[in-house]
Amino acid sequence: MPSVAVKLYSVFFKFLLKHRLQNRIQSPPDESSPFGVTSRPEETIAASNPSFTDGVATKDIHIDPFTSLSIRIFLPDSALNPPEPDSRTHNHHHHHPPKPKLRAYHTQKPDPDQANGSNHSFRRNSYGPPNIPANPKEEPRRNSYGSANDIEGLNLMSTSAAAAGGGVVYRGYSPSPDNCRKLPVMLQFHGGGWVSGSNDSAANDLFCRRIAKHCDVIVVAVGYRLAPENRYPAAFEDGLKVLNWLGKQANLAECSKSMGNTRGGSGGGGGGGGGSEFKKSHIVDTFGASMVEPWLAAHGDPSRCVLLGVSCGANIADYVARKAVEAGKLLDPVKVVAQVLMYPFFIGSVPTHSELKLANSYFYDKAMCIFAWKLFLPEDEFSLDHPAANPLIPGRGPPLKLMPPTLTIVAEHDWMRDRAIAYSEELRKVNVDAPVLDYKDAVHEFATLDMLLKTPQAQACAEDIAIWLEDEQEINTLLPLPGD
């Protein structure tokens, strides 16, 4: 069972959430403006930091001039390691000892042998072919660079401003265009029941930093528009818009690269000091600003795109994955190779066993979640079997057999668990690799809620996600292994 502290915090959390939901419904927003909001005043925000003070650099970008849609990029310092030649084909595993595979369980009862095992072996059960070892390795999954002297391209001050007598101007990480290591790009969609949460909240910032370091990926946390200011399909459209933006960035970076560099210290547009040795050609907007995002251009590989959704964000991730399948080569060079659904916000009109048994479970009970769905879905479309809510209704395209490998994470004390497991079973029926990790004594958002972020289970969950991405047989030649 969850600890006494978790139970007490759950009571306080429910009271606060109910109060906020009632305020949202009693104060109808101006829904005539599509700009919307991506955060609430009561949210604790973590400022972005474009240096690698804790192993991850971050920056915020507002990518849509017509809405409040924004992203926060998390770049791990492992991206600064020079790329290995032919790194996708050589044997990565010489760095690590062989890892045992976890036995697959097709029932929801934990194995008594595992309950008496190591700390890692009883924290969750798995369903389907998980390819996840029982004992994750203890050694770090990445190289860490503690000194700025070891990092090429970490330009922390503007020398031109200093030379002009303007002092030192902090600038953060500026990548060198040559010899950069390419990392997979993970689009992350936060939770919050459609009406709260933020991509730059303190809790989401910490979670994304952890995922970026453990999984060795560039995390792009999506700040989608919240309800009820912007109801369905705004959040879903924002998720797809970021995926298309990622493809546009890849194409712009390729065009900019093909334009090449011209050597010389004079001439050329776009400002600069007389001491510059190189002038790089840029694709610019009407204000003269470069349209190419430098971190993604230097280090991102959109052909290795992973989606990760938390709670209601998992619903967005699944929608984006479906749209990516439907688009096919139209999204090139972006390719969604996997998705991770963390305790999805699924519901339906016919209750499952867990919905009946755990309806009044911790943090997010069923009554409050239905309240959140009423704020999210348009009044004339409200239904618990809406395609955004129930993944098991017939007629949802595309065919499930075309979906990417999908890891589903569920909690023992989450009333939404059974429908998430059922969706995973439907994927496995059509031969999609779709394991389920079921965490014992865990609650909804056990790995992402502010109070629970530093618990052993939350950290173990991030490790398990990293191991699945590493061991996933269909993408193990696409995702780099930790420590490379």
| pLDDT < 50 stretches | 87-122, 136-153, 156-163, 261-279, 480-484
Helix content: 25-40%
Q: By helix and strand content, what is the structural category?
A: alpha/beta
**Oligomeric form of this entry?**
single chain
Straight-line distance between termini: 39 Å
- SS elements, strand count: 11
Radius of gyration: 23 Å
Proportion of residues in extended strands = 5-15%
Total number of helical segments?
A: 11
Coarse shape: globular
* Major sheet description: 9 strands, mixed
The strand line-up of the biggest sheet is: 1-2-5-4-8-9-10-11-3
Walkthrough of the structure:
The strands form 2 sheets. Strands 1-2-5-4-8-9-10-11-3 form a 9-stranded mixed β-sheet, sandwiched between helices. A two-stranded antiparallel sheet has the order 6-7. Strand 4, helix 4 and strand 5 (218-223) form a beta-alpha-beta unit. The chain is α/β, with parallel strands linked by helices and 484 residues long. The longest helix is centred in the middle third of the chain and has 26 residues, at 234-259. The chain has 11 helices and 11 strands. Helix content is 29%, strand content 13%.
Keywords:
single chain; 484 residues; alpha/beta; two-stranded antiparallel ribbon; 11 strands; 29% helix; 13% strand; disordered C terminus
Brief synopsis:
The protein is an alpha/beta fold and 484 residues long. It has eleven helices and eleven strands.
